[in-house]
Design a protein that fits this description.
This protein is about 40% helix and about 10% strand. It is α/β, with parallel strands linked by helices.
């Protein structure tokens, strides 16, 4: 764990949380689904090339791997196929990340809103939360259906702020990829990074105000973390 506390202008009112890799161990599953969907279209792209891109929206993943636009017919077909492979073949076996439920409960006990800010498609967001057993702990949610551009663009984070009715200085972001940290920074929101999504080199989280292994690790140090001492009045 490493951390350095921000100095907020307003008391903390909400924690914006990513889902995939942050609250549920799903990043490998998404990469497998994309690899299969693209292979079926004739693009044999290795899992290891796709995996580091998970956390970006499908639009950016397709553009980076193949130069495809998500709204072009091949892009639409690949996106829908990857979604179906994930939802039908992967989702039911996924588990929450260690301590995810206890951390969200602790955040809410501190008087803070829990607001989802995810690049997931609207059809996936609720299903992911239900599979992780966390849907009852979410106050608001913003996903790709609420944004023009996906992470690392800041649109989804800004949408989450609007839904929470707060300024960037009253929020912290919790995510597991460099794309979460960048999106939060571009929206003016400090971010806490979790390594459990598969990014174990902390240089990827250079912009984060704190880095922990998992929700469980953050919970264990809650009172010494950036989440403590800045609660809603």
């Amino acid at each position: 764990m490493s951390h350095s506390h921000p100095t907020p202008h307003h008391p903390l009112q909400a924690v914006l949380v990513d889902i995939d890799g942050t609250l549920i161990d799903s990043n490998d599953a998404h990469a497998r689904a994309w690899a299969t969907a693209l292979k079926e279209q004739g693009h044999a792209i290795p899992f290891d090339r796709i995996r580091p891109l998970i956390g970006k929206g499908g639009d950016k993943l397709l553009a980076e791997l193949l130069g495809l636009a998500e709204d072009a017919p091949p892009g639409k077909a690949a996106t829908e196929r990857a979604r179906r492979l994930f939802m039908d073949g992967e989702l039911q076996s996924l588990q929450p990340t260690p301590g995810a439920r206890d951390l969200l409960a602790r955040i809410r006990d501190a008087g803070l809103q829990v607001v989802v800010a995810t690049s997931a498609q609207p059809s996936e967001t609720q299903a992911l939360l239900v599979q992780a057993g966390l849907d009852d702990l979410i106050d608001q949610q913003a996903d790709s259906g609420d944004a023009e551009a996906s992470k690392p663009d800041p649109d989804i984070v800004r949408s989450a702020l609007r839904k929470a009715g707060i300024r960037p200085s009253a929020a912290l972001m919790l995510g597991d990829t460099p794309y979460d940290i960048e999106a939060a920074a571009r929206a003016g929101v400090p971010a806490i990074a979790l390594r459990c999504g598969g990014w174990w080199n902390d240089s990827a989280f250079a912009g984060a105000v704190a880095v922990y292994d998992s929700p469980q690790a953050l919970l264990a140090e809650f009172d010494a973390s950036p989440l403590a001492g800045k609660r809603r009045e």
